[in-house]
Amino acid sequence: MSEFQFVYPTPTEVLEQHPLHPHLNVFRPAHKQHSALVGITALEEGSVGTVLCDGQVVCYATLHPPDRYQRFGEATVEGILELGAVESAPEFRAQRLARRLLDVMMPPESFQENIIIATLYHWHYDLENTGLSTYAYRRLLEKLYSRVGFVVMKTDDPEIISYPGNALMVRMGSEVREELQAEFERLRFLRSTRGLDLSR
Ligand SMILES: CC(C)(COP(=O)(O)OP(=O)(O)OC[C@H]1O[C@@H](n2cnc3c(N)ncnc32)[C@H](O)[C@@H]1OP(=O)(O)O)[C@@H](O)C(=O)NCCC(=O)NCCS
């Protein structure tokens, strides 16, 4: 039987030597996603967890600062990270690879000074391969992420609240500085703090 190797953080050169399984294509074609992952390993605050099997990556998860074009990327205080893509090749699903990889990446004592967000967008859900409904899929992800300390939090981000199958999940470290916490709260309810909704 093939052996699985859980690697975190995956060094750039290890990732360069291991192509992605060709069916890791939910977010973009596997070769393009591979380049994107290599790019993340080169970021100061970026890291990638991988499950290697027979010379290929069969499951991965990314951690990086939120993209600048999304609201949490506007933060003026450092320390917010995003659990970005998590993906297992369809042939390797339901073998606890994603679950075990997240355990390796985020043991309870890790990232205590950080706020890690995970945005659940229904347009990323692979309903076709899993056969799950949107809500069952959201529950699957909530359970998967809650095992490593994430909780669902409210926000007024239109991208999230536009559809009930979406959600914001947050892993709040126990040593998060007050100014980071305040900045996070400001961004979580940006429409209210900017006064956009209050007078209407
Ligand atoms: C979500 C995803 C990463 C899970 O990967 P995985 O390696 O199959 O996950 P695991 O085997 O660790 O299973 C995690 C949980 O999901 C459950 N699960 C996995 N596939 C399932 C399915 N088809 N139906 C029902 N439950 C399922 C498992 O039973 C497990 O729950 P448990 O801990 O209660 O036993 C995978 O389905 C995937 O790549 N999906 C496409 C990309 C995506 O949606 N990523 C998440 C958003 S970025």
From TrEMBL:
GO molecular function, one term: acetoin dehydrogenase (NAD+) activity
Coiled coil region boundaries: none
InterPro entries: AcuA, Acyl_CoA_acyltransferase
Transmembrane region(s): none
Signal peptide positions (record): none
Superkingdom per UniProt: Bacteria
Gene3D superfamilies listed in its UniProt record: 3.40.630.30
Gene Ontology biological process terms, A to Z: acetoin catabolic process
Name under which the protein is recorded: Acetoin utilization protein AcuA
Organism: Deinococcus cellulosilyticus (strain DSM 18568 / NBRC 106333 / KACC 11606 / 5516J-15)
Gene it is expressed from: acuA
